[in-house]
Amino acid sequence: MTKSILITGATGNLGGAVTRKLLADGYHLYTTLVPNEKAPADERIHAKIVDLFDEHDCAVYVDEIFDSGDDVHAGILLVGGFAMGSLTETNLGALDKMIRLNFYTAFSMAKPLFEHFEKKGGGQIILIGARPALQASQGKQAVAYALSKSLIFHLAEIINQTGKDKNIHASVVVPSTIDTPPNRQSMPDADFHKWVPAENIADVIAFLLTESGSMLRETVVKVYNES
Ligand SMILES: NC(=O)c1ccc[n+]([C@@H]2O[C@H](COP(=O)([O-])OP(=O)(O)OC[C@H]3O[C@@H](n4cnc5c(N)ncnc54)[C@H](OP(=O)(O)O)[C@@H]3O)[C@@H](O)[C@H]2O)c1
Q1: Closest alpha carbon to 114 in 71, 54, 154, 74
Q2: 191-210 pLDDT, tens digit each
Q3: Most buried pick, 79, 91, 149, 162, via CB within 10 A?
Q4: Nearest CA to ligand 1 atom 31
């Protein structure tokens, strides 16, 4: 059976590195496209237009993936985005935008994945948190972002509790600042060496999928390097 993984946000800076690493490790990947986005040429990647804000669309895609007969190991849910804004600058509109982008996109796939993992007898869900959700000192200038990412940690805890004795578990990978072109552009004076290359985060994610990594429970991995 083909070892497969569902990954969202595969076209992003982190997603690209994770995609390369998982293909090198022999996985086939299922990913999502936004309308008018070109499908990847690699035949090991199956891509479909899916609206991550549409629960039905997500559930149908996950059904299709499991119906393929592949051995689906995990979902790696990477979609997310950042916005600045202090407490007094944050309104419900800003909160709504961040919660939809950082939380709904993960929840809408995590739920049908969980249902299939229950039937299959196990599986892993890997989510991406952020340090501002863990440390208010970091989150006070990006309040909507911090609050939206805090839901990711709670979702992982709920998956872990609900998945206990079902061999279903969730991990949260928490990067500090990823060394990406957009981050270099917006913080040109920062010491980039203190940041985390996306390839190192991809290696951490790949480890979580190994036999040893899959023994970990209630995992929150802080990939901070020196930043
Ligand atoms: N960058 C950092 O320093 C940092 C730090 C901590 C945590 N994180 C988290 O790490 C994850 C990846 O970050 P990144 O820097 O790689 O981000 P990125 O380069 O901006 O990639 C984001 C990905 O999400 C996709 N996406 C955005 N909105 C979407 C939507 N509505 N529907 C479907 N897909 C959508 C993008 O697709 P398109 O390419 O089509 O837009 C892209 O594939 C995010 O969850 C982020 O919050 C990042």
Answers
A1: 74
A2: 999 999 999 999 999 999 99
A3: 149
A4: 101
Q: What's the 1 CA to ligand 1 centre distance in angstroms?
A: 30
CB-CB contact of 65 with 73 (8 Å): no
The pair of three-digit structure tokens given for residue 35, joined into one six-digit string? 């309308």
Cα(166) to ligand 1 centroid in Å equals: 30
Task: Look up the pTM and report it.
Answer: 0.98
Does residue 177 have its Cβ closer than 6 Å to ligand 1? yes
Q: Which CATH superfamily is domain 3-223 in?
A: NAD(P)-binding Rossmann-like Domain (3.40.50.720)
Delimit the domains of the chain by residue range. 3-223
Q: How many residues does the chain have?
A: 227
**Can you tell me the mean pLDDT for 153-177?**
98
**How far is the centre of ligand 1, averaged over its atoms, from the C-alpha of 121 (Å)?**
30
Q: 30 - beta bridge partners?
A: 6, 46
